[in-house]
Amino acid sequence: MSEFTENPFASSHSLDTNPFEDPSTRHVPEHDAHLEDLSRREQDLERRERELNQRADHIRTHGRNNWPPFYPLIYHAISEEIPEASRPLITRLYQLWLVLLGTLIINMVACIFLLIAGSSDGGKDLGGSIGYVFIITPLSFLLWYRPIYNGYMKEQALYYYFYFFFGGFHLLFSVYMIIGIPSTGSAGLIQTVHMYAQGHWAAGILCTIATVGWTVQGLGNGFYYRQIWNHHTAAGHTMDKAKAELTSHGAKAYFTRG
To answer: From CA 149, how far away is CA 158, in angstroms rounded?
Structure first.
């Protein structure tokens, strides 16, 4: 019955619909979103391509070397070369080495202020502090940090003995710098007290920062020195093993990755 009552002239379109509207324009938002997605993917691919090209250029110029960043001479990658269980320890030692580097620089700046403040040994202190920056920085990396890095990477005895000898010397040097004897290039404790006593607050504050830096890296290195000694003993490393490794590999091998 409904077939006979239905209006044959009724429009099949809703009154809210524009009969002259282009149907293709209804999908514009979806089309724009698709274009944005393609644009993001293209930018991501371009970024990855640039990174790969930069790595390729770096390898052609420096090989795998990546440290120091401004002029790569060695390969340094704790996450890749150090066993997982030992990574936190080596990471802390590297951070302590960075604290040492910062302390050497602050110590030099403090010695400049000692000279400005009229310290009778200011010239000697400044000269010594500059020498420390350029001598202690590379030697500390090569003679105690790099050997223990290689020691945990290769687990060979000679690296540990290199570290114990030069790391022990560094601990003594840290104590010497904490004391801060005038004319030694140290802005340590004695220098700090003198600057505060004479009312030179800027020099005193810088000397305080330097003293704290020497103390932090010294105590930290002392703490890990003990841990490394215990690990070395538990691993069964002996002087005889170290001598045998020195005979078979040579000393040069202990400053390289191989």
So the answer is: 12
